[in-house]
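thoughts on my protein:
***
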Amino acid sequence: KNNERKIFEGDSDLAVIGAGIDMSADVLAANFAQVLADAGFGNLIIRVDNVTNLETYARVQGYLASLTLVERMELLRVLPSYVIYRVVTQGDSAGVAKAIALGNVLVPQQMAAADIDILSDFTARGSKDNTVQVYRLFK
C-alpha cells in the first residue's frame, strides 16, 4: 500500500516535482491527521527519562509544548533522571504518540513494573483517561 509507485508527467521538471510534492503532502496528511472535532480532549501522563539538567528539561518542555495536539501541560514531578507531566490533548493518546514518533526527540520506552506504581499516583482515579506513556530523551 505505501510502496505504491506513481508516475508524474508535466510541461516542465518544476511541474512534475510540484505534483510529487502535492501527492506526498496528501499521503502524509491522510496518515497523520487527527479529526479534532470528533476526538474532544484527553488526558495522559507522560514520563521522560534522561532529563538530567536544565538544558535537557528545557528541550523536553519546548518539544512537548510545540506538538499541535498538546493543549496544555502540568509538570507533576522532577527527579534527577526524569520528569513527569500531565498533558491535556486535543484527541486521544494514540495521536500524541504518533506525533512524538514523527520527531527525533523522544523514543518510546517499555514501562517497568516499578513505573506502574509510581505513575499510577498521577492518574485520575475512576477516570477513563488513565493513559501513561514513557519515553527516553534521544541524545
Remarks:
- The helical segments are 13-32, 36-39, 54-66, 93-102, 113-120.
